[in-house]
Design goal:
158 residues, alpha/beta, Leucine-rich repeat, LRR (right-handed beta-alpha superhelix), 6-stranded parallel sheet, 3 helices, 8 strands, LRR_dom_sf
Length: 158
């Protein structure tokens, strides 16, 4: 966890990168900015390294994974209570931290099992099994948080 003052200082540094055009910033955290970039699929640029979209758990919003196609430098992805349609092939191969509270699927697709991922936080998910051993996921993984995933029945052999 990060102290609020440190987080706000970082946001104040990033926001002036391009205050009027969110897709030109390296990090997006405002709901409206992230929403706009994901709705207009052509807006995702290679400048985006971190994206956070936190929706209330009651609101179900779905975005296409095509929105991530141009985000080649994306290393941090936080999608809380968000549903993505289509496959996950468009996600960056540089992804290191994945936080997805309320993950809607029963298993983690192979496309999400990137060998560079260091942290996976999928609290309150619908996961039934976690089978990413074959992808080399456990080589660099330091944090795996699946708490409050009440349907979970199978996990990797740690």
């Amino acid at each position: 966890m990060m102290h609020d003052l440190l987080r706000d200082m970082g946001r104040d540094i990033v926001h002036p990168e391009n205050p009027d055009v969110p897709r030109e910033r390296s990090r997006l955290w405002h709901l409206e900015d992230a929403n706009d970039v994901l709705i207009d699929k052509s807006q995702g640029t290679e400048k985006i390294e971190g994206l956070a979209l936190n929706l209330p758990s009651l609101e179900e919003t779905s975005f296409s994974t095509e929105a991530f196609r141009n985000m080649k430098r994306l290393r941090l992805l936080q999608l809380n209570y968000v549903q993505l349609s289509r496959g996950y092939q468009c996600l960056s191969k540089k992804l290191r931290w994945l936080c997805w509270h309320g993950f809607p699927l029963e298993f983690i697709p192979i496309e999400l099992c990137q060998p560079n991922i260091v942290a996976i936080d999928m609290q309150y998910s619908s996961l039934r099994q976690v089978l990413c051993e074959y992808s080399g996921l456990l080589d660099k993984l330091k944090i795996l948080n699946l708490s409050h995933s009440h349907d979970l029945t199978q996990s990797p052999d740690f």
